[in-house]
Write a structure and sequence with these properties.
Blueprint: H1 5-13, E1 22-25, H2 28-38, E2 43-47, E3 60-63, H3 66-76, E4 80-81, E5 84-85, E6 89-93, E7 99-108, E8 113-119, H4 126-132, E9 137-142, H5 150-160, H6 167-183, E10 188-196, E11 202-204, E12 208-209
Antiparallel strand pairs: 1-6, 2-3, 2-6, 4-5, 7-8, 7-10, 8-9, 10-11, 10-12
Helix pairs in contact: 2-3, 5-6
Length: 210
């Protein structure tokens, strides 16, 4: 079962991973009400579908006031994105982004170990990164018995060549993401992008959970 982004973010938040404040809604009026309740413009209106390329399809829009929330929500609800009709939208506080990274855990069945992937090239499909610049993805294989130790996490982050300001935050989130992946009995836990804010905070801007 694939979770929608908003469900994935709730799942991540339960394991202490920092995510953007927001709410899922199904109507235009509720979208406006949430934006006003968040009281922190700009906000982002995001289509909730099991498909990539939402931004290119017009399913992710920035709103700086209630009128723009109403306009974007009306355009996104009912939108067809790769055969998926948008019935739910997620309204969240916009984040200042300095850098975008990629992080995920899944099972490498052939190795019978958990596979972690981390890249300083986030915000794009990881398949594209793997094809054009495979060395940009730092991979680790974790024995379920050993788990993800502090030292392994630190070495992994160093190998991915993230901005040094992001190292501590990334290590903390990766350990929590591994816990979410294993204790949540997931097949995949992915953050793309994992962002570094100008303030130095590291934050999960998206959530993909299977």
């Amino acid at each position: 079962m694939d979770l929608f982004e908003y469900q994935g973010k709730r799942f991540f938040a339960g394991f202490g991973i920092p995510v953007s404040a927001g709410e899922a809604v199904t109507t235009i009026d509720d979208a406006v009400a949430v934006a006003e309740r968040l009281n922190s413009y700009p906000v982002v209106i995001k289509a909730q579908v099991h498909a990539g390329g939402r931004g290119k399809a017009g399913g992710v829009k920035l709103a700086t006031n209630a009128d723009e929330v109403r306009e974007h929500a009306s355009n996104i609800l009912g939108l067809d994105i790769k055969g998926h009709i948008v019935k739910v939208i997620w309204v969240e506080v916009a984040s200042d982004i300095e850098q975008e990274y990629y992080a995920s855990f899944t099972l490498d069945r052939s190795a019978k170990k958990h596979l972690g992937m981390l890249s300083a090239q986030g915000g794009v499909e990881i398949e594209a990164v793997a094809e054009t610049d495979p060395d940009a993805i730092a991979k680790i294989w974790i024995d379920p018995v050993d788990g993800l130790t502090d030292q392994v996490a630190a070495d992994w982050v160093a190998a991915a060549n993230l901005d040094p300001r992001a190292n501590a935050g990334a290590i903390d989130i990766l350990k929590k993401l591994y816990t979410a992946y294993t204790e949540g009995d997931a097949d995949l836990c992915e953050i793309n992008p994992l962002i570094l804010k100008p303030t130095g905070e590291v934050h999960a801007l998206d959530a993909k959970v299977t």
